[in-house]
Design goal:
The protein is an alpha/beta fold. Helix content is 33%, strand content 14%.
Length: 217
């Protein structure tokens, strides 16, 4: 979102860095750089803020969906080169879902006018809707599907107020506590439909997704 803010102000965004004397954990630097490599963007993550850098605080762009204008989205996609070598050439038709759990629950506080927790039924409704839509257009894609059966792949965390058995009983796959790289790869390079939660973690790869129809919720 800071990248979008910089674009709206006619500035060049060069990357993210920790405030004051704090440092990003070294264990996180590698995965973050790998995620940026996937996107093919021209900015990076710094362990310390560069001297003389113009630092933008989160409150300036947080909760600003207006920043994602059509002009900005065209600019973002035209200046990035996702790693097409990661595209899964042969796969089943797939709906990939990110369900935010872990740090959110039905008892959580209202954030910027909405609750971050979305119940299982919310995702089930969307899955059923897009399964029907995807089944109708499967014959009109260039993807070399290995099966006619639609796969529903769910990424989330094991710490959850609701059980994921509801999804498993319907034959959906639930991957819990997976790596960031795995989730992003599936969302960007090997999905036909993407359903995301109220989370910037899944919003970013959904923006770059090669899916036929990315669907933020």
């Amino acid at each position: 979102m800071c990248h979008a803010l910089a674009f709206s102000r006619g500035l060049k965004y060069v990357g993210a860095c920790p405030l004051k004397s704090k440092k990003f954990k070294k264990s996180l630097m590698g995965p973050r750089k790998e995620l940026l490599r996937m996107l093919g963007v021209d900015f990076q993550v710094y362990s310390r803020c560069p001297k003389g850098a113009n630092i933008v605080k989160a409150f300036e762009y947080y909760g600003r969906p207006d920043l994602f204008s059509a002009e900005y989205m065209d600019h973002l996609r035209s200046t990035s080169t996702p790693s097409v070598d990661l595209v899964q050439q042969q796969r089943p038709p797939r709906i990939t879902v990110h369900i935010r759990r872990g740090d959110v629950s039905p008892c959580g506080k209202n954030t910027s006018g909405y609750f971050r927790y979305l119940p299982n039924q919310h995702y089930l409704t969307l899955i059923n809707r897009y399964k029907e839509e995807l089944s109708q257009r499967m014959n009109y894609t260039v993807v070399n599907y290995t099966s006619a059966e639609i796969e529903v792949l769910i990424f989330s965390e094991s710490k959850s107020y609701e059980s994921f058995d509801t999804f498993r009983k319907l034959g959906h796959k639930a991957v819990l506590d997976g790596s960031l790289q795995t989730v992003w790869k599936k969302i960007i390079f090997s999905s036909d439909v993407v359903i995301i939660s109220r989370s910037s973690f899944s919003m970013v790869p959904a923006i770059f997704s090669l899916a036929l129809s990315p669907n933020p919720t």
